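Posting for a labmate who doesn't have an account.
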Amino acid sequence: MKAVIQRVKDASCTVDGTVTGRIDHGLLVYFCAEGGDTADMLPKFLSKIVSLRIFEDDGGKMNLSLSDNGGSMLLISQFTLAADISRGRRPSFDGAMGADEAEEFYEKAISLLREMGIHTECGVFGAHMEIKYLNDGPVTIIADSEDIFRKKQ
């Protein structure tokens, strides 16, 4: 799995002129499931995102998580995060999970986030989406399951 995590003041997703998700302060997360990802990895990956201390406390230090500050999440499926640009000029997306399985994975992620108590809005899997947001900071972090699940040596 890969995710691009952005701390935002607000964010929205529109599909065919209809807003499918909108949040005030919180996280805009672009999410990609890759081949080899398993459902048992999902809770730890999402928990890591939700618990990142990237929101400012009263002293101005990044010391609070999404859970701590009561923010929301806008979760957007984005298979292009699996792009392999090592050869040529056309990215390969062979590393992305197949569409049917990835859609189930995305829906499971939304359910798990809501079970964690996170107000979660979302886009539409596989649709052409327009995302508007105001990055706060800016704070942008890239999460990769290979880093989270790497075996300690």
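Reply:
Got it, the structure tokens are right above this. The chain has a mean pLDDT of 96.
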